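agent> Task received from the user: take the single chain below, predict its 3D structure, and emit structure tokens. No templates, no multimer pairing.
agent> Plan: (1) validate residues, (2) run structure prediction, (3) serialize to tokens, (4) report one or two observations.
agent> Step 1 OK, no nonstandard residues flagged.
tool_call: predict_structure(input=
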Amino acid sequence: MAVNARNGLLKLTSRWNNEAVINPKEILILNLMPTKEATEWQFLQRLRETQIDCTVTFLYPATHRFRHTSSKIIKQHYVCLDQIRQRCFDGLIITGAPVECLPFEAVDYWDEFKQIVEWAHDHVKSIIYECWAAQAGLWNDFGLSKQKMSHKLFGVYQGTASCDSALLKDLNTIKIPQSRHTKIELPKQLPAGLKILAANQTIDPLIYQADEGHSIYITGHPEYSADTLDNEYRRDQQKGMAIQPPKNYYVDQNHQDIDYSWRQPGIQLYRNWLNGLAG
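)
tool_result: status=success, residues=279
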């Protein structure tokens, strides 16, 4: 089984090897992270670990002003919506983005985000929104607003399945890395058509679902590599920022060894999603 990249920076630099595949799932990833190459690798690797053949196309918002990556390189090695508007895909993943403290309408590609989501409802079997994208999707689809927290939610948190769902097959519990400053403001009663799939007693829900699985909102990052939170923690320390060690992450108090506890649940989550794209 293999996962191939149709485009992207890893393909450009020959750091991802494509292999022969038969009838792969066609997955589109809207990569909104500033760490473009690391994010490409995380998703390609996690999808490969599902043992399901996939071909991945990386998408970028044409209206975004890039600060961390050359816009010329992105335009050459990613696709924009106009280039794929007539195509259909099995699945779409929309990544997180470091814009969570901005009002949604202040994000420079907000209108394009909404256009991509509207297009995807007719051209994609299922959408996974992650982290900021989950909050953006819940705001766009259901009008659920976000709230800034008093401190950063940072670490690995466990959710318990709150209802039967094919997405959580063989996952009574699931662990998902979190790294965010905002959370969803939940009303007393969820909007019609939206349900919680995985909940945690101390933080807001980890996974929501709507439209019978067409829209999946994951408040964290199941794709994260073992060292992603560690790199973020040490980066913020070097910047002199007030940052606590990520919770439920390090094995020891010296913050050297990492408990990669979300890897297998993350693989199973994406495997279940891919299997649900059949037909």
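agent> Step 4: summary for the user.
The longest helix spans residues 36-49.
agent> Done.
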